[in-house]
Amino acid sequence: MATEQLLKFVDREQAYPAKRDAGDRAADFREIAERYNPPAAEDQAGRCSQCGVPYCSVHCPLHNHIPDWLRLTAEGRLREAYELSNSTSTMPEICGRICPQDRLCEGNCVIEFSGHGAVTIGSVEKFITDTAWEEGWVEPLVPGPARGQSVGVIGAGPAGLSAAEYLRGFGYEVHVYDRHDRAGGLLTYGIPGFKLEKNVVMRRVDRLKAGGIMFHEGFSVGEHATLDELRAKHDALLIATGVYKPRAIRAPGVGATGVVEALEYLTASNRKGFGDAVPAFDDGSLDAKGKHVVVIGGGDTAMDCVRTAVRQGAASVKCLYRRDRANMPGSQRETKNAEEEGVEFVWLSAPEAFEGGDVVTGVKASAMRLGAPDASGRRAPEVDPEGGFSVKADLVIKALGFDAEDLPTLFGAGELGVTRWGTLRVDAKSMMTSLDGVFAAGDIVRGASLVVWAIRDGRDVSERMHGYLKAKARTAQASAQKVAA
Prior knowledge:
Residues 26-136 form the Dihydroprymidine dehydrogenase domain. The protein is an alpha/beta fold and 485 residues long. The protein has three domains: 3-135, Alpha-helical ferredoxin (Fumarate Reductase Iron-sulfur Protein, Chain B, domain 2); 150-243 and 404-484, FAD/NAD(P)-binding domain (3-Layer(bba) Sandwich); 251-400, FAD/NAD(P)-binding domain. The protein contains 19 helices and 16 strands. The radius of gyration is 24 Å and the shape is globular.
């Protein structure tokens, strides 16, 4: 496509890659849409208005050079587009799949404001990097000149993996410790395959392993080694564990059999996708097949749960959320996908009790209404005294979000500073915790957030750690020279 064919958003309609039929896609865990073919990608990238102030980049946590790689794509210069996309992100094809573009880049696209429909940025980003993998343009991770210093990274999620990649590129020996038997964190075990097929994650992990990053999987800090023992082993540490403590529901019957945590449910499903033996799935406890499923929550995790339950063959799937559709925290695109696949949303409802005694048989729910805005700016839900109802349920999945685990206790490091929310307290400039040489990044600092923010934090903290380690090496060298003199 010639350059003069750019800026054609007025007469060229927005077109996302076609989604598979809802009935077909609900029968498997494949991603629901295929990627563009090259002419379609070039055509859609050519809709970009090439803004002088690109709001899409401004609102991207990674500040990706979006208009530039859209222009290169429109001109058929895909390898250059990939290299530019890859220059700011360690996982562009993953962000292209799972970022809530409707709230970030695409939601702030200038031509979206003009009523012509946003450029399909995420779909083009996915196309560019998938093409790069197929064409062999994704180069191996080449470590920098060896510095004689080692770094330990606790947590193999997006923040930890991103930081590990940059630190290895700086020339450090990098060890990644993770309690799961596969790296990737929530990318591997939390997000279902219909949003992110697992080979996409594993090829990234394999690239890091081939680059000399050493992974210690099935390693729990506090059990296999204390934080102090890891500090003694490495010149610096990064804590990037994410947040995994599920938020509780306080209601009668919450401990009944059949009331389960969202992450436990999603992990079991993803493990089955890998072909693992999962006793709690195989005995039916974490399998929705033939069951009436109720998911409580309105975020992206809740959307993952309802859509997983559909694919497992649930008899019915309902989602209870205490606010209305306009005020839900999850992606509107995910909600639409779920509705297409047969999920019923029960807005303005909250669990009052879980019925059935030892084994759940239903959810007694309160009707809600929206009152005055709360601290977040959204109207706060309150019980509507004139409403209330019950819904049948054989499986209830709690998806109310996650908080930080008690890391000082888990890690045997009582001096590790935390905030009142339990997240790690870090210096805003250095990203270092209360312990010298121990840094933190990702959700364990900012609270439950987006994958793209974790990648950004991993990139930022690697630069701070690099500066710290260079200063440490200079100090050690000066001390050695003073002794020698």
